[in-house]
Write a structure and sequence with these properties.
By secondary structure, this protein is mostly helical. Helix content is about 60%, strand content about 0%.
């Protein structure tokens, strides 16, 4: 379960960043201070005209976070004008590199000729809507969710995420992620904060569950056990392990023979003599072949899973030297589908 605590990487700008023009929307600090003052008065229930420096900084970050949400909402409207269709699942935006962008990310479209106060109010409403969408997405995943025996995945999704929704403060601290999100997803979402990081995390879990549900549960757990006898306690990505098994096997038993390397010794020589980028290209072929047969043209799933390929290529190259992963790839009774 992700620990509850203050998230260090908050959305906001320091005083120096403000001087350098880091305030979203091109607003001046003087335009933001009245909003922060009103927020501080509300926080103290109008019983005090002062708050601590740390609290004032937190409230300023809350205002900046909300304004960025207003910018992002405008960007989504701009992006969808010519699309004629909704953006990705639950309004997540996918870039060409396959990243699932939470819509609170910085973007090149300004908030427009509106006051800072209006931008803040618009952004705060956007945060509230995103919390609602994220909660809907969580409950969409929940009925068929499986942790495949992995404690970290189970605790993060089943215990941590509900705690986030319980304690998340839209008004006074929307930039706080609250959870550490111990379960590692394949995409780097560390640059997101608050509801944006939770939203991106849930979209990653949605894609992982889609992939894992292709396999009978006992097959998935058998693959996990073959890689790590303590898979129940491992803090690694479950989906990556299964995808590695399927793609690695396809690469060794289908792609390399097509390259003219059929024997184990020949394959080892190829792996040891090839650059990681070359091995990754072969893994892309194997992964794309399997995914197209299993899921059709699901580009979002493919782009997400392909985040794992570089690490997979390095491990496969290492396996040619130490025989660990290599032995598993040639096991006949590991429960994997026979033909890719």
């Amino acid at each position: 379960m992700g620990d509850i605590g203050q998230e260090e990487n908050r959305t906001g700008v320091s005083g120096q960043e403000a001087e350098d023009g880091g305030i979203p929307g091109g607003y001046e600090m003087e335009e933001l201070l009245p909003i922060v003052a009103k927020l501080a008065n509300s926080y103290t229930a109008w019983e005090s005209t002062s708050v601590t420096y740390e609290k004032a900084e937190q409230l300023m970050e809350a205002v900046l976070y909300s304004i960025r949400q207003a910018e992002a909402e405008k960007w989504e409207e701009f992006s969808n004008m010519d699309a004629g269709e909704e953006a990705g699942e639950m309004s997540a935006v996918s870039h060409g590199n396959g990243d699932i962008m939470a819509s609170g990310s910085p973007c090149p479209v300004p908030a427009g000729k509106v006051s800072a106060k209006q931008a803040y109010e618009t952004g705060k409403e956007a945060v509230e809507k995103k919390v609602k969408r994220a909660l809907e997405l969580y409950h969409k995943i929940l009925p068929d969710f499986s942790d495949y025996g992995n404690r970290c995945l189970r605790d993060t999704f089943m215990e941590g995420i509900p705690e986030f929704f319980k304690w998340y403060d839209v008004k006074y601290a929307p930039q706080d992620t609250i959870l550490t999100l111990d379960y590692p997803v394949l995409q780097d979402i560390s640059h997101y904060t608050g509801i944006d990081r939770i939203y991106a995390f849930l979209n990653c879990i949605r894609l992982e569950q889609r992939f894992l549900h292709f396999f009978p549960a006992d097959v998935a757990t058998r693959i996990l056990g073959s890689f790590n006898g303590m898979y129940e306690e491992m803090i690694e990505n479950v989906c990556e392990t299964v995808f590695t098994a399927v793609t690695g096997r396809g690469f060794l038993q289908k792609i390399l023979p097509e390259y003219g390397f059929s024997g184990e010794n020949e394959m080892k020589e190829y792996l040891l003599g090839s650059r990681t980028e070359e091995i990754r290209a072969g893994l892309e072929q194997a992964g794309a072949f399997f995914l197209k047969g299993a899921f059709g043209e699901d580009l979002k799933l493919r782009e997400y899973l392909f985040h794992a390929l570089s690490g997979m290529a390095a491990r496969l190259k290492n396996a040619a030297e130490n025989g660990g992963l290599w032995r598993y790839m040639f096991q006949e009774n590991n429960g994997m589908p026979g033909d890719l």
